[in-house]
Amino acid sequence: MDKMKTAEAIRSGQTVLGIEFGSTRIKAVLVDTENAPIVSGGHDWENHYEDNIWTYSMEEVWAGLKDCYGQLKEDVKSRYDVSLTTVGSIGFSGMMHGYLPFDENGEQLAPFRTWRNTITGQASEQLSEVFRFHIPQRWSIAHLYQAVLNGEEHVKDVRFLTTLAGYIHWKLTGEKVIGIGEAAGMFPIDSDAKDFDAGMLEQFDELVADRGFSWKIRELLPKVLVAGEQAGTLTEEGSRLLDPSGELSAGIPLCPPEGDAGTGMAATNSVAVRTGNVSAGTSVFAMAVLEKALSRPYEEIDMVTTPTGEPVAMVHCNNCTSDLNAWVNLFKECLEAFGTKVDMNTLFGTLYNKALEGDPDCGGLLAYNYFSGEHITGFEEGRPLFVRRPDSKFQLSNFMRVHLFTSLGALKTGMDILTKEEHVQLDKMLGHGGLFKTKGVGQRVMAASIDTPVFVMETAGEGGAWGMALLASYMKNKEGDETLAEYLGQKVFHGEEGESISPDAKDTAGFEEFMVRYKAGLPIERAAVESLR
């Protein structure tokens, strides 16, 4: 669209707004009538480790939201000389799942327990056994049941349980609802009923019956909605939370709030059967939309859904680029000590590309990127670790390569189950997130790790906020019974698949050699956790 048409679309409220609360950045994206991003805003933030809990305060949530939206608003004004007073629809997304409990007065009962916590092992194990369905540690129901097992006083007073995305949506609209993809990380979903699994809800109530709680589990959970349904409108109070200036109008329709898994699927056009996507940033997760159910539950595989409720197998790992980023920042500090200023994009690009010069197996080097615990490999706590033998080839190219490899080590453990044991067939795997910003490098490493061609679109860097905007756009603009897959394929991506990199045989063999060391060295990592408590 040209500038004048875009300005008119903004003025008349034809644009759509998507906002996502990621682990390290809150991002807002405004899209035009052709679903192309036109302006954005952002706010950097970090979780805190307090009282053995990874958390964010709700004060940080609202301050970050206002700053992020305020930047977007300023961007609109400076680019198009228009004041942003309304939009056609809004969607909110957040880092997946976790635990946010509230009492009957809407007061928060416990600090936000994020996806990063690995403190619900007992609950995860017991619920998985009762349900005969794998319940990951980060899921909301695992956090609730662990609080029950811990005898935490607040549990008896819980009247509403939600996720970060659900919380923000509730405060802006008054509606206690959740998108089905995010709901699937709160409690298991029945994909046929498009709702929480009724049988498992009853099983949970029976499990805690002797505790004497006045509530039933369904009463605590938000209402499940699928993509395309309207999920309320922005209230007067909600509009002030988003835009304290009072310029933003109330009454704007909102789509169901989703998690970053669902927005990743939308942003990569991977909501149809036999498609998959991988999101690689602070954490990393890969998703495959299934043709048929897996043969049995696996601890390493989470069963979730697309934003429209189709079953999805997910491999989710808590750690990806945090340790890698820390090393890059160390190199930046070194350069600055010599008086050299370097652009961070240039530094990342240079160091990432250096990794392509390394030996296929990283020259015998070994690293673990565990900033936090990693459930797939059985760690409740993390200790970033770099190890080498005296005869390892210790050079910059191998050093960077091993840190790229280890960022996907835990992910490969789970993906091997899907591809080698369950023989899940994927027509394409689409990548998005920070790991793919340096053209060709993260993509090549990912292709080697899963031995599958990886596609990356030009829009991959837009991430979940754009994906959330697409879900809001679908709700506003879909025609009749048009499916989400049809809408994305025909009206957003227009058949575009992006650039593909196929796995290189030497890279793939080298990754397999690295994984032998990775698995054999896990006792070293366990010793590091114990010795550095």
From TrEMBL:
> This protein's superkingdom?
Bacteria
Listed GO molecular functions?
A: kinase activity
Q: Where is the Carbohydrate kinase FGGY N-terminal domain?
A: 16-240
The keyword Transferase belongs to this UniProt entry's keyword annotation = yes
Where along the sequence do coiled-coil regions lie? none
The Carbohydrate kinase FGGY C-terminal domain extends over: 277-474
Instruction: Give the record's keywords alphabetically.
Output: Kinase, Transferase
**InterPro entries given for it?**
ATPase_NBD, FGGY_C, FGGY_Carb_Kinase, FGGY_N
In the record, biological process GO terms are: carbohydrate metabolic process
Please list which residues make up the signal peptide. none
Homology family: Belongs to the FGGY kinase family.
In its UniProt entry, what is this protein called? Answer: FGGY-family carbohydrate kinase
Source lineage: Bacteria, Bacillati, Bacillota, Clostridia, Lachnospirales
